Amino acid sequence: MKYRYAGNSGFKISEITYGNWLTHGSQVENDVATACVRAALDAGITSFDTADVYANTVAESVLGEALKGERRESLEIFTKVFNAIGPKGPNDVGLSRKHIMEGINGSLQRLQTDYVDIYQAHRYDYETPLEETMQAFADIVRQGKALYIGVSEWTSEQLREAHQLARQLGIQLVTNQPQYSALWRVIEEKIVPTSEELGISQIVFSPVAQGVLTGKYKPGEPYPEGSRATDSKGGASMIKNTLAQEETLVAVQKLQPIADEAGLSMVQLSLAWVLHNPNVASAIIGASRPEQVAENVKAIEKPLSDDLWDAVNETLAGVAVTDAERTYQMSPKQRPGTN
């Protein structure tokens, strides 16, 4: 395994992070989830990402149980707060001091740990003053319940304001967690330059565009049975509406010769592509079978050359989503489920 710094800090995370967004507590049984976590550890992955909202807190519990007995100092554990959890009452959502403080305590209990390495704001909360949010995060860091602070899908302006407040409060905002892949490049115009300036890294999710970049979705053919595009609980609407348009699927099929030239599978090519961006500290992978983990990690063995990176971009030109304005649509203007 290789490691990269999280932002402008001395903290290193593995280039591949194991995440359990759409699997643990929902799509796969707990014993399979545990086997996948063990496979990640065996492959050298030390960074693990989850969130309290995944499977309405169950995913955190599954991950905590799977990591039980491991040397805590040898792991990097990230979780998130914002979305509605539990009975989803008016204070069970958002980035108010109340929800953040209760959120970290619940997450630590479920993860069976005294602290998380990065505590992340899952989205931006337009209903809570940012000063309140950042003060709560600062208090959590000072209490030793989190070592660093991160965010997810924030705009460049929000990153800049939060970074300034973090410095004033004496804490480190080190990461942003956006969606990023060869098909979803909306962070490149504004988020990445701002992050590079401020010393913030990206920990990216959906580097394989939720399976579209595997090439398993064939143009003109029905979606494979059991695939994410057929699972209403697994992001099917996002795949169908944004990433799995017919012209996109045609272009993706043309990536196979590039993958062959690089000596990589299509999944490995996709991971190598995102890791080619120096502002990316880590790419998050998920798995429904243990063998998938070891295969995906091989992506770090063969860094993508500039020529092959360009070849991927040229192949997907016209179908990759690059509109920076999409970053302004990621956080809801009102807290979900409370109106």
From TrEMBL:
<dbReference type="GO" id="GO:0016491">
    <property type="term" value="F:oxidoreductase activity"/>
</dbReference>
<dbReference type="InterPro" id="IPR023210">
    <property type="entry name" value="NADP_OxRdtase_dom"/>
</dbReference>
<dbReference type="Pfam" id="PF00248">
    <property type="entry name" value="Aldo_ket_red"/>
</dbReference>
<feature type="region of interest" description="Disordered">
    <location>
        <begin position="216"/>
        <end position="235"/>
    </location>
</feature>
<protein>
    <submittedName>
        <fullName>Predicted oxidoreductase</fullName>
    </submittedName>
</protein>
<dbReference type="InterPro" id="IPR036812">
    <property type="entry name" value="NAD(P)_OxRdtase_dom_sf"/>
</dbReference>
<keyword id="KW-0521">NADP</keyword>
<dbReference type="InterPro" id="IPR020471">
    <property type="entry name" value="AKR"/>
</dbReference>
<keyword id="KW-0560">Oxidoreductase</keyword>
<comment type="similarity">
    <text>Belongs to the shaker potassium channel beta subunit family.</text>
</comment>
<feature type="domain" description="NADP-dependent oxidoreductase">
    <location>
        <begin position="15"/>
        <end position="314"/>
    </location>
</feature>
<dbReference type="InterPro" id="IPR005399">
    <property type="entry name" value="K_chnl_volt-dep_bsu_KCNAB-rel"/>
</dbReference>
